[in-house]
Specification:
0% of the residues lie in helices and 47% in strands. The strands form 14 sheets. Strands 3, 6, 7, 8, 10, 11 and 12 form a 7-stranded antiparallel sheet that branches. Strands 15, 16, 17, 19, 20 and 21 form a 6-stranded antiparallel sheet that branches. The radius of gyration is 47 Å and the shape is elongated. The N terminus is likely disordered. InterPro entries: FN3_dom, FN3_sf, Ig-like_fold.
Length: 842
């Protein structure tokens, strides 16, 4: 008969007559109707909503604890103890007890369970509790149960069963074979029923046993146990030992020297209208035979007091310490099994000496899967080699030893027993703060890239990296159980490759210092983009890796900065700079300053024809003579809009100026005539000033001369008009000549033609995704060289680069098919400087 319960108002649905009432739970916790399940033997299906319990720091894994009790035995509110893990069984009476008669039937993360082993016409009470498991390694930690106010309670009564017809042929040939002083093998011949119930009765001293009843109640199934006294009682000192279709079973825990009675009852369950077996309402046939047997005494006396009060402490993810109170045996045997793989038996065999090992799984076995972890006189043991987040059973058996060293175990009393629950492995913490730094390389393929990061909780690490290329597969991820080898020099060598294009660059064990971990990568291609990931792992029991956490990043390999040197010959500077290698560099440009703050370009950029992939690049440029100390540096500009500057050098002229020049300035008229103005604070033996002009800032030609004052201590002003109209950006300087022929040069200034004011327009603005945009640039002439157009995102990512020829009107249109809506930066570079506009795409 299948019973399905619903509680929130707690409706109870039975296959026949029933009675039910409920304590209404709060709305966050309730028993409710599950999906209908097929009928099964003497069972009820209970479901509940996800119980609510607020976790505190250090706890995880919301679970439910369901406790069931027969009201005829007890009707008290169950009170689970904080920090105690309870073992459950879906067969009523087989799970751990919170109090006498209160059995745990479920303890897990689900929301429904089916309970069997119920009795007919019996009232039951069910209570569900929410709890969280602890992730802490504190010995005092454990499950944390919700307050009782969040508990749902359900009362229900099972239907009354009518007895089925007993089998016509009962079991016969009952016999008992003694195995040792506490164990017997029981056998019978089956009758014609569905199965048989083995009943064991201990006979009082002097009793013949015939007059003592062992008859089971028709219509009732009995919960059996292979340990004498642990099965359900049928009569005084009479217990169910086996229930099922077999005809033989082994009985344990008998008292040495005592006499017992064994009876096998054949039973048959009720059939439905079609003759099908309903597995309910057993009817028992009278036994044909009864067996009597006496258990022999052991080789030495059995201890009289069992060990007790076993309790877990000092727990970690793989170890647990258990303490107990000793009985009166000479020694004690501690056995452990993993509940998931246990057959329920743990006890040792008499006269058998076992070897203990505190590492679980390495000692002797008393039963399949039950290992001896200690054999000695102490009252505690620390068990290791356990699995994280796993339940174990532990029992302590007292024993004495005879003169020949054979042990007699106390099996007729319950041993000290406890559940052991290891803590879950902490959530792994991934490595963090991944950074890339660069050293100054001394040739193209020998630059070092420094990668550093803060370790996570792994014990080892491996570094994977690859160059980012269009259409390439994702970065390879390591597989648990595979240990990857590496090249010792951490370089991008084919021998270090794994997967498609991924390289294993480093693998090692973390140091114990907790400091940042640093590795150096070799042979990265200058300026190329790479993706890299740090994978951490721990080693399992076989020394194989289990990968626990990772941190990825993308970076561009370092570009090399120019290294600048210079010298003065007759106050004329000559600059020389070298670059170890360059990638996608567009031009060099020389900058000068008199205060090391305001730097101005000296002429247009010096084009870079192609990438340098093998050796250093060296360039030398002579400049105009200087009359004051001057700072110089060199810019190297790349096609993606990034630039690097060289070191700054200072060059100082070697003799004082014959003329103290105050300033040089210029204006451009509407007719594009340049007027140069300059003044002096004092002059000594000055002959004349020559005004020189240049289109590139390097090569100058004279355009006019102005006589000087000779010798003067007063401020003098001079003026000269360039007879040649300006057609593009033009540089001017003064060439001052003394009466003895010595000469000096001023700093250069630049002037723009009036009509060449650059105007940049991008339209339509806003534009529409999938359409086209156009660029208009005015104010240049045919001699202005090339126009470079760059389209970037606001974060600086280069999306497109276009090179156009300079004209008075430069026009260019491009498709927006692959542009997402947003704001984009349009940059135009010309000989007249850089110009910017924003484009909004909707």
């Amino acid at each position: 008969m299948n019973i399905i319960l619903k509680a929130w108002g707690l409706l109870l649905f039975l296959c026949c007559s029933y009675s039910a009432y409920a304590v209404v739970p709060p709305p966050d916790t309730a028993l409710h109707l599950p999906v209908t399940s097929p009928p099964s033997c003497n069972q009820v299906t209970i479901a509940w909503t996800s119980a609510t319990a607020s976790p505190s720091s250090g706890y995880h894994g919301k679970r439910s604890l369901l406790v069931l009790q027969a009201v005829s035995a007890t009707n008290a509110m169950p009170e689970p103890e904080q920090g105690i893990s309870y073992i459950s069984s879906s067969y009523f009476g087989a799970g751990q007890q919170l109090a006498p008669g209160q059995f745990v039937v479920y303890a897990d993360s689900g929301q429904a369970t089916t309970i069997s082993g119920l009795q007919a016409n019996t009232e039951y009470r069910a209570d569900v509790f929410a709890y969280y498991d602890s992730t802490s390694l504190d010995a005092a930690s454990g499950p944390v149960y919700s307050p009782l106010v969040t508990t749902a309670t359900l009362y229900f009564t099972t239907p009354d069963f009518s007895s089925s017809t007993p089998p016509s042929l009962g079991a016969s040939g009952a016999s008992a074979s003694i195995v040792d002083c506490s164990t017997a093998q029981l056998t019978c011949l089956p009758g014609n029923g569905d199965g048989r119930l083995f009943v064991i009765q201990r006979l009082p001293s002097g009793a013949d046993g015939v007059s003592l009843s062992t008859e089971p109640q028709s219509g009732q199934f009995y919960f059996p146990n292979y340990l004498y006294g642990q099965g359900q009682a049928v009569a005084p000192d009479t217990y169910a030992m086996y229930l099922g279709p077999d005809s033989t079973a082994t009985l344990y825990g008998l008292i040495p020297g005592e006499r017992y009675k064994f009876v096998a009852y054949e039973y048959q369950t009720e059939r439905d209208g079609t003759g099908g077996n309903t597995c309910t309402n057993p009817g028992y046939a009278a036994p044909v035979d009864t067996a009597y047997f006496t258990v022999p005494r052991c080789s030495t006396t059995e201890p009289l007091v069992a060990a007790s009060s076993a309790a877990q402490s000092d727990t970690t993810t793989t170890t647990a310490r258990v303490r107990w109170t000793n009985g009166n045996g000479v020694r004690r045997l501690v056995v452990v099994n993993q509940i998931a793989f246990s057959n329920g038996l743990m006890l040792p065999q008499q006269n058998t000496l076992y070897q203990g090992a505190t590492a679980f799984g390495q000692g002797s076995q008393t039963q399949p899967g039950t290992f001896v972890v200690y054999a000695g006189q102490d009252s505690s043991v620390t068990v290791s080699n356990l699995e994280p987040d796993t339940y174990y059973q532990l029992a302590v058996y007292e024993y004495n030893v005879d003169q020949r060293g054979k042990p007699t175990y106390l099996l007729s009393q319950a041993p000290a027993y406890t559940l052991v629950k290891t803590y879950p492995e902490p959530e792994p913490v991934a490595p963090s703060d991944l950074r890339v730094n660069y050293s100054v390389p001394f040739s193209y393929n020998q630059g070092l890239t420094q990668v550093s990061w803060k370790p996570g909780t792994g014990s080892h690490y491996v570094v994977f990296a690859q160059e980012v290329r269009e259409g390439q597969q994702a970065l390879y991820e390591p597989v648990d159980g595979i240990l990857y080898n590496q090249k010792l020099n951490n370089d991008f060598s084919p021998a270090a490759r794994v997967g498609d294009k991924t390289y294993i660059l480093s693998r090692s064990t973390y140091s114990s210092s907790g400091a940042d971990t640093i590795v150096y990568l070799r042979n990265l291609t200058i300026g190329h983009v790479y993706e890299l990931a740090i994978f951490e792992y721990v080693l399992d029991g076989n020394g194989l890796p289990k990968y626990t956490g990772s941190i990825p990043m993308a970076f561009r390999a370092a570009r090399m900065e120019p290294v600048l040197q210079g010298e003065l010959i007759n106050d004329v500077p000559t600059l020389t700079w070298t670059v170890g290698g360059h990638y996608h560099a567009e031009h060099f440009r020389i900058f000068a300053s008199q205060d090391n703050t305001q730097f101005l370009p000296l002429g247009p950029g010096i084009p870079i024809a192609q990438d340098s992939s093998v050796s250093r690049v060296a360039l030398t440029r002579p400049l105009s003579a200087i009359t004051v100390p001057t700072y110089f540096k060199v810019e190297m500009y790349h096609r993606d809009g990034q630039w690097l500057y060289s070191n700054t050098i200072l060059l100082s002229p070697g003799k004082p100026l014959p003329v103290e020049l105050l300033r040089l300035s210029g204006q451009v008229s509407e007719a594009n005539r340049a007027t140069l103005n300059w003044s002096t604070a004092q002059e000594k033996n000055s002959a004349y000033f020559s005004v020189e002009r240049s289109l590139d800032g390097l090569h100058f030609v004279p355009v006019g001369r102005q006589a000087a004052a000779g010798t003067s201590t007063q401020q003098r002003a001079y003026r000269l008009v360039d007879p040649h109209p300006l057609e593009q950006l033009t540089y001017y300087r003064l060439h001052q000549v003394d009466q003895n022929g010595a000469a000096t040069y001023s700093e250069s200034i630049s002037l723009q033609p009036a009509r060449h004011t650059l105007q940049l327009k991008v339209w339509p603005n806003p534009a529409h995704a999938g359409k086209q945009a156009s660029l208009h640039l005015t104010g240049l002439d045919h001699q202005a060289g090339l126009v470079q157009v760059y389209i970037r995102t606001l974060t600086g990512q280069l999306l497109h680069h276009k090179q156009l020829q300079a004209f008075p009107l430069v026009e260019w249109s491009w498709s927006l098919a692959h542009y997402a809506p947003g704001v984009y930066l349009i940059e135009v570079q010309t000989s007249a400087g850089r110009h910017f506009a924003r484009l909004v795409i909707e």
